[in-house]
């Protein structure tokens, strides 16, 4: 495949051709020749966006419970519905979420939810790239948690040879998993070279309660237990002291920032600009659509950048925002994605520069972050395959999925 | 015209037909019959969104100067460019902005910028509804300001009989206009039943400097001078004490809230939830695309609502957000728009419910505010005329406008 004559984001924006062989970018240059040419002369060529924290099947619960805080939201709305989830619900929730992600330029995601086999099934069909976490929670029942871990190991083993799918351990949080369990999980993760995907410092209340119970702030506690390593992907981290941020940096912990969800559940604004300044790898996530309520990383980039500017207009550039949503996502998830560069996997999106929102072109990346909405993405390439062309999905049947997902969603909340 | 069988937002959402005769909604009911039928059976039928504060032609400066605070932004980037603006620049800037607004479901706007005759020209062509402010600033030169006011009165007079255009006085701010000048403007406005469109309390610095210079906080000062009346539309009001909000309420001043611009220029978050609680009419605006950087009120609704939830998840419902973006806009601009109701002007948008972002339908207005992006709008009706159908503009030639606007924008910054 040859993407011809586009404005390509490399270290800067330049008119280039991008050659793809199989799943991989083989050359970025000028006047390249080849077959399967995609004319990108009116397009911006960006790495696909990476959604590093979501609960994809929760798309079925989009808009089900707004206007309540995290604890109440979980206890009174989400958990009761999740009790009744079926694998088929999850399958259609995953497909609906996949449609939404692809159409908004996301090419890779990191999921954590019930029935992870259904996420796998959806990913195989959609052509997306993903890291699927096996969800783990102890809830004071170590025996059951031990069985879950065994099932997780088996799940990972069956997916060992999948090309677009990696797996990770998904211990829910340090509240629902004991320190011993977390260490056991981390031990397996180290042996298998897998990520550990966990919720951390989502709400102020949570941090306070944990600190009281363990006589140490959570991040300090997790450090002293030996849990924090560079395979830990910590979602949220809204509230953290300077000292805690230094700890995350020391151990190479990745932060998965979810600004919409954090505001919507009144958890606050994560200090992303400070994290970046300290050299922490911050990547972007949408969280589930039940608390966002979209899976659109364009909306997330915009919100992240604007929020960091609350007190300082220079706190985050649009270039930095795009890097967080692409390259840092690749770094966090340990896939060679997020850059348009020889040797990187061919996860690429094309944005139509003729869109009114992309006009004028004083600063094209500024347009991407602040002005464009995701409908400006017209072509999506994942692993060297064209997954969307002119906004039409080639792997999934959008209309059927929307219909089926709606039925399942309706049934789920009325079951 | 008959909009048949849509989910119509009245006091609640209901399956209804909407009959339009000429420019006006004549009936909202069931099983209505008529000609020019629009099948809305898969659509949500909402009032058109109202952008109550923008500088439309500034769309030419989108992305020209990010990452700087208000004062520097104006002094070092915007004002030097504005010195070189031509009427033709403004014309194409206005057209580009109009394309963007219509395509994102905005049917009416309130503009304040140089060469207001060019905004008028664009509005006549686009079919939009607008209140065009005549821009006024004194800058210590009362004689010149007097001439400007005379020119403004003449401008208003020539547009007296236009059907979709109203005019307002646009004294820039209490810093650039003396108290005497503001009172003179207000006096004319009262006589002509016109709005006064002004910037107020945009940055903390501004409030502090004004308070020092006048020995009173600006809103108290303007009250004691007799300027504040219910025709005053105050853009921004980011920083205001409880006492100042009470003053705004007492005099029926309308607040034009611009959340993106306020964050992007590091001015902060306006206390909208408190304003609403006090009974102040808050409407929504994008500000100019040079400080937003889009004119998309869907993005603005989402941001407004999420920001109000920073500390309280119940601070603003999606229903309230939609009301602010529609009905309150009508109230602020004194047009009979913003509701789907007999006797209201037919400014109506149709949103495709089959869009993945609108699925499932646990709460359709929640989907509108949090999940949808503006590309879900597929039909736009203004003053009883279909202006956009299936996302194709019927009054403006999108491709030509994008091309011409780009040329003018490039030329403007290189002139």
Keywords:
nine-stranded mixed sheet; TIM Barrel; eight-stranded parallel sheet; Urease, subunit C, domain 1; 2 domains; 415 residues
Unreliable stretches covering 5 or more consecutive residues of chain A: none
Q: What percentage of the residues of chain A does DSSP assign to strands (E)? A: 15-25%
Let me know the number of strands of chain A.
17
Tell me the count of domains of chain A. Answer: 2
CATH homologous superfamily label of the largest domain in chain A: Metal-dependent hydrolases
| First and last CA, distance of chain A | 48 Å
The CATH architecture of the largest domain in chain A can be named as Alpha-Beta Barrel
Number of helices of chain A: 15
List the helices and strands and how they pair.
The structure is a homodimer of 415-residue chains.
Chain A: E1 2-9, E2 13-21, E3 24-29, E4 37-39, E5 43-47, E6 49-54, H1 70-82, H2 87-103, E7 106-112, H3 116-126, E8 129-136, H4 142-158, E9 165-171, H5 179-192, E10 195-200, H6 204-214, H7 218-225, E11 232-236, H8 242-250, E12 254-257, H9 259-264, H10 272-278, E13 282-284, H11 297-308, H12 318-325, H13 327-333, E14 348-352, H14 364-371, E15 377-382, E16 385-389, E17 392-393, H15 398-414
Parallel strand pairs in A: 1-4, 1-5, 6-7, 7-8, 8-9, 9-10, 10-11, 11-12, 12-13
Antiparallel strand pairs in A: 1-2, 2-3, 5-14, 14-15, 15-16, 16-17
